[in-house]
Amino acid sequence: MNLAPPPLPSDDKRWKIVNGTMRRHGFARHALIETLHTVQSSFGFLDDVAIRFVAQSLHVPLSQAFGVATFYNHFSLKPAGKHTCTICLGTACYIKGADRLMAEAEKRLKIKAGHTTPDGNISLMTARCVGACGRAPVILEDSELLGLVEPGVMLEQLERWAAHD
Ligand code: FES
């Protein structure tokens, strides 16, 4: 039986990243943990929608997917920051200066990658490749993908988020 994968939960580009991880593993069940890691690193947390989508795509019982998501401390089941800045650290982006973007973001937000500002406003996340290498370096500002990113452009957005909350 070869069931078609379910549609992406929304047009948020981060679902394509999640789908890419599952596709790389042929939508096999053993991709569960890695896929949940991808959700976590892309969105900053796992929620009901994400867990259901992954479980359905990989034909894993929902209880098993929730079991894995709640068992490992690494996974966060709540939204982290109100906003998420995800910096792609894949090879193409790294070569084009993603490490500098990360250093600037960490300095501005005074947090390390994978963390959220103490006021809960902004989470700083990383991705390994978001499939837009031709536009490296790439970041996601919430769900919006930006390519050829200069540090100043990224910092302006971080300032806007910081000022409005
Ligand atoms: S390495 Fe960043 S988009 Fe591919």
Describe the structure in your own words.
By secondary structure, the protein is of the alpha+beta class. Helix content is about 45%, strand content about 10%. The chain has helices at about 15-25, 30-45, 50-60, 60-70, 90-95, 100-110, 150-165; strands at about 85-90, 115, 120-125, 140, 145. Helix 2 (about 30-45) runs antiparallel to helix 3 and helix 6 (about 100-110) packs parallel to helix 7. The longest helix has 13 residues, at about 150-165. The radius of gyration is 16 Å and the shape is globular. The mean pLDDT is about 90. FE2/S2 (inorganic) cluster binds next to helix 5. FE2/S2 (inorganic) cluster (FES) binds near residues 88 and 129.
Can you count the beta strands?
5
CA-based gyration radius: 16 Å
Strand order, sheet with most strands: 2-3-1-4-5
N- and C-termini, Cα separation: 50 Å
Q: Note the overall shape.
A: globular
Low-confidence stretches: none
Domain count, please report it: 2
Secondary structure layout plus pairing:
Layout: H1 14-24, H2 32-43, H3 48-58, H4 62-71, E1 83-88, H5 91-95, H6 98-109, E2 115-116, E3 122-127, E4 139-141, E5 144-146, H7 151-163
The protein binds FE2/S2 (inorganic) cluster.
Residues 88, 90-93, 129-133, 136, 138 line the site of FE2/S2 (inorganic) cluster.
Quick overview:
This protein has 165 residues and is an alpha+beta fold.
Characteristics:
165 residues, alpha+beta, Glutaredoxin, five-stranded mixed sheet, 7 helices, 5 strands, 12% strand, binds FE2/S2 (inorganic) cluster
